[in-house]
């Protein structure tokens, strides 16, 4: 898509696919058009070129009636909360239910109070938006975004105005919702901690373009100066106070940097991928993480070497943690009636005498539910799909494709 206001172009040729059911983040300096992008996705703003295809319908071309129906799939948290000032929080949160459903008031009450509780606003539901803190308004906006159990959730800076602990709770809530209802989520954020631990995929807007969009490891290990500067939060680099930094300033800064003067940024190593936040134990396995792994393995050979290494390390770490979970290993041991030996690195040796290294392909429980395995050779060059239809008492796969 390309979007301008009058003669001011905001961004051009932005193309991306949000993989269904995955959690995505969009980063970018202030003013690069992230909020405009979200509003374009729901048809509140219209790109002058391009299309927005949702479930096969191009919402830039469809009728007003179709757009109205498609909007019901969305839950949107606007950057400013966008609450109705003259309505209580309760009525604000109930609004989509009254507008889009025929639910009776007692059912509406049950849903609203459930969401109020989820975002930690119990007791504040009768207050007006003007009577609560900025962070509370943000959480009320999120509660309202969630009442219709949306298939697509867009959150414009869910963390802004929230303290670090509440931010962690909101992030956890989004991961739990993704596990529970498989919603496709797009989070616009400046919060690097969220970017590192929450999304499956990350994109970044800069200088009117989408710099990148893909598996989180690609951006987090990127060598691009703009990405590194943004992640580190440093004033030295291509991003300036206004978008364009002139050459004299850039040269002066480079000299300061060479002299060891701090640009205020963190020295954290973002290429060391830290594990993603997992759903709470009472939640189902996140199907998105299984699909995401498959999607990533399909394209891994086309990614930069840094990203490939980081992805392999993430997968090995996820597998290791899955194997440590008592539930998972108990199921596996019960299935094969054999001791599993799980060496460091990729995959695990399934049983005595097995020659293959079988990766757990997402979650180890997938072994039970869907006996299709991704098997990687030790050289990691060939990916074979193998189906084990039964495991005998001796622990041998009795037939395979
Ligand atoms: N309705 C509008 N009419 C005209 N210009 C607009 C409109 N909405 C946004 N803009 C302009 O589009 C640009 C991008 O704005 P946007 O709010 O999307 O930035 P952003 O990336 O979300 O920034 P921030 O991180 O500060 O929220 C800005 O220059 C803004 O002035
Ligand atoms: Mg914005």
TrEMBL record:
Which parts pass through the membrane?
none
Checking SUPFAM superfamilies in the record gives: P-loop containing nucleoside triphosphate hydrolases
| GO MF annotation: an example | ATP binding
* Annotated ABC transporter domain residues: 2-232
Keyword tags: ATP-binding, Nucleotide-binding, Transport
Could you tell me which Pfam families the record lists for this protein? ABC_tran (PF00005)
Domain of life, source organism: Bacteria
Recorded protein name is ABC transporter ATP-binding protein MceG
State the organism named in the record. Gordonia alkaliphila
Q: Which gene encodes it?
A: mceG
């Amino acid at each position: 898509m390309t979007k301008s206001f009058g003669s001011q172009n905001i961004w051009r040729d932005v193309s991306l696919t949000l993989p269904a059911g995955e959690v995505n983040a969009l980063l970018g300096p202030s003013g690069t058009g992230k909020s405009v992008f979200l509003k374009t996705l729901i048809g509140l703003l219209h790109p002058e070129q391009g299309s927005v295809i949702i479930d096969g319908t191009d919402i830039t071309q469809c009728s007003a009636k179709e757009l109205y129906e498609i909007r019901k799939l969305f839950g949107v948290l606007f950057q400013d909360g966008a609450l109705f000032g003259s309505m209580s929080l309760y009525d604000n949160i109930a609004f989509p239910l009254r507008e889009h459903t025929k639910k009776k008031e007692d059912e509406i009450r049950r849903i609203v109070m459930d969401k109020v509780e989820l975002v930690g606003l119990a007791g504040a539901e009768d207050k007006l938006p003007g009577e609560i803190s900025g962070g509370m308004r943000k959480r009320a906006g999120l509660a309202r975004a969630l009442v219709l159990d949306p298939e697509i959730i867009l959150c414009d800076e869910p963390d802004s105005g929230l303290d670090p602990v509440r931010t962690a709770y909101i992030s956890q809530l989004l991961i739990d919702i993704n596990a529970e209802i498989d919603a496709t989520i797009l989070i616009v954020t400046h919060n690097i901690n969220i970017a590192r631990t929450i999304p499956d995929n990350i994109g970044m807007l800069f200088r009117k373009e989408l710099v990148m969009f893909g598996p989180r490891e690609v951006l987090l290990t990127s060598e691009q100066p703009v990405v590194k500067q943004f992640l580190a939060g440093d004033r030295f680099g291509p991003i300036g106070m206004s978008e364009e930094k002139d050459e004299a300033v850039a040269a002066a800064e480079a000299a300061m940097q060479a002299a060891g003067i701090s640009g205020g940024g963190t020295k954290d190593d973002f290429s060391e991928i830290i594990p993603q936040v997992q759903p709470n134990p009472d939640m189902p396995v996140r199907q998105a993480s299984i699909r995401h792994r498959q999607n990533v393995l399909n394209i891994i050979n086309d990614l930069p070497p840094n990203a490939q290494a980081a992805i392999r390390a993430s997968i090995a770490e996820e597998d290791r943690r899955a194997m440590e979970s008592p539930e998972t290993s108990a199921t596996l041991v019960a299935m094969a009636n054999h001791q599993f030996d799980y060496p460091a690195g990729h995959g695990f040796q399934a049983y005595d005498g097995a020659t293959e290294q079988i990766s757990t392909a997402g979650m180890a429980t997938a072994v039970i539910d869907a006996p299709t395995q991704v098997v990687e050779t030790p050289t990691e060059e060939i990916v074979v799909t193998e189906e084990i239809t039964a495991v005998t008492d001796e622990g041998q796969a009795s037939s395979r494709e």
